[in-house]
Automatic annotation (TrEMBL):
Biased composition (Basic and acidic residues): 88-98
The species this protein was found in: Musa acuminata subsp. malaccensis
Protein family (similarity comment): Belongs to the cyclin family. Cyclin AB subfamily.
InterPro entries on file: Cyclin, Cyclin-like_dom, Cyclin-like_sf, Cyclin_A/B-like, Cyclin_C-dom, Cyclin_N
Bias (Low complexity) ranges: 104-121
Protein name from the UniProt record: (wild Malaysian banana) hypothetical protein
Record domain Cyclin C-terminal: where: 305-422
Molecular functions (GO terms): cyclin-dependent protein serine/threonine kinase regulator activity
Domain annotation Cyclin-like: ranges: 212-296, 309-391
Gene Ontology CC entries for this record: cyclin-dependent protein kinase holoenzyme complex; cytoplasm; nucleus
Domain of life of the native organism: Eukaryota
């Protein structure tokens, strides 16, 4: 066997090619790693894909894929002056992963050849390195590492906004920015939980009676949920800044609802209707004067992050149904009546209400990674607030302030008030 100078990548000239006359020796067969096309075993003439002779299809290329792992291994180990050898290594070292071998080439397909040449007759010289044991082991280990990485798949968080891509009202493009803004500004909408001692003529119990009564008024007027939460926020922010005598407290309440209706409702109740529900204890002029006082005290700031805006987002993250939604709102409205709940942020109140409702319906502690991601609150962070909510739920049907319980005991609200409270949370450890 003598070496062919043109085949610089080190193959030996086959015995059948010694007397080829003017026939050109094989050159690059385009099996180099990184070549634009797949590796080619041999270029044949007059063969179709099924191996039959076809004069109209003079060229047939047997394509053999280069596996990704082995190509990367060869490329990392090859030197610049050994690219041809590495490519040949790639071609012959992966026969077990290749397609069936190309059909043999007969003398009829080679016009210049007098004898038949079979692809299987090609052999490698000792100069061409075959896959070593270490390389095979490295390839196997690489494959194992890939499998292990595929097995260790981290739990993916579902896209809760994917179903609303075609809904312009959902503003999917901006919803995350909107709630980032809400979280930054919710502190300004919070009220100091110690403002009541500065009131000389009213107390926490009077505030609770007012809110409980306004919940019934809100229900009778069939107003939007946003209106109720904004009404409570306006009352607390005003009382934290202005002292009010006892006989004017109801006027503050109905005026706050009047302002909230102007901000949230499409159809606003007329002033005469509000005077009527107060049993004509106030005049129209007094209500309009109180409206001016409240709006100037709050500096016309009606855009605040109430628990309602967070409730809608967090319920979506919890993949809620109607039953969970109604029970969550029942619990959060119980919190509106309680003065002590002012110490919690609106976002925390919303998350804790949904968590408490889920525990109540399921009978065990339940808080998913999706809920934790979108609320930014872990289960342990919600537990303190949730225990208070469980206590409110347990006592909602007793006592004098039962407006929320009566509202959510109707079929319109799914009789959510009759759900069993999650009493096991009272004994849960942090």
């Amino acid at each position: 066997m003598e070496r062919v100078d043109e085949n610089s990548w080190g193959t030996m000239k086959p015995a059948t090619f010694r007397d080829m006359g003017d026939r050109r020796a094989l050159r690059d067969i385009r099996n180099l790693v990184g070549a634009p096309s797949y590796a080619c075993a041999v270029k044949k003439t007059g063969l179709t894909d099924n191996g039959s002779s076809d004069d109209k299809n003079p060229t047939f290329v047997a394509r053999l894929p280069v596996t990704r792992n082995f190509a990367a291994t060869v490329a990392s180990k090859s030197q610049p002056d050994q690219q041809g050898s590495s490519a040949q290594h790639d071609r012959f070292g992966n026969e077990s992963h290749c397609k069936p071998p190309a059909p043999s080439m007969s003398s009829s397909s080679c016009p210049d050849s007098s004898s038949a040449v079979d692809v299987d007759d090609y052999s490698l010289s000792n100069d061409i390195a075959s896959p070593m044991v270490e390389e095979k082991e490295e390839m196997d280990n690489s494959n194992l590492r890939e499998v292990e990485m595929e097995d260790l798949v981290i739990e993916t968080i579902p896209d809760i906004d994917g179903c609303d891509l075609d809904n312009p009202l959902a503003v999917v493009e901006y919803v995350e920015d909107i709630y980032t803004f809400y979280r930054k500004t919710e502190v300004t909408s919070c009220v100091r939980p110690d403002y009541m001692p500065h009131q000389f003529d009213i107390n926490e119990k009077m505030r609770a009676i007012l809110i409980d009564w306004l919940i019934e008024v809100h229900y009778k007027f069939e107003l939007m949920d946003e209106t109720l939460f904004l009404t409570a926020n306006i009352i607390d922010r005003f009382l934290a800044s202005q002292t009010v005598v006892r006989k004017k407290l109801q006027l503050v309440g109905v005026t706050a609802m009047f302002l909230a209706c102007k901000y949230e409702e499409v159809s606003v109740p007329v002033v005469e209707d509000l005077i009527l529900i107060c049993d004509r204890a106030y005049t129209k002029e007094e209500l309009l004067e109180m409206e001016r006082l409240i709006i100037n005290t709050l500096q016309f700031n009606m855009s605040v992050a109430t628990p309602y805006v967070f409730m809608r987002r967090f319920l979506k993250a919890a993949d809620s149904d109607k039953k969970l939604e109604l029970l969550s709102f029942f619990i959060i409205e119980l919190c509106l009546v309680e003065y002590k709940m002012l110490e919690f942020r609106p976002s925390l109140l919303a998350a804790a209400a949904i968590y408490t409702a889920q525990c109540s319906l399921r009978g065990f502690r339940y808080w998913t990674k999706t809920c934790e991601l979108h609320t930014t609150y872990s289960e342990d962070q919600l537990l303190e607030c949730s225990r208070l909510m469980v206590d409110f739920h347990h006592k909602a049907g007793v006592g004098k302030l039962t407006g929320v319980h009566r509202k959510y005991s109707t079929f319109k609200y799914g009789c959510a008030a009759k759900a069993e409270p999650a009493l096991f949370l009272l004994n849960a450890s942090l």
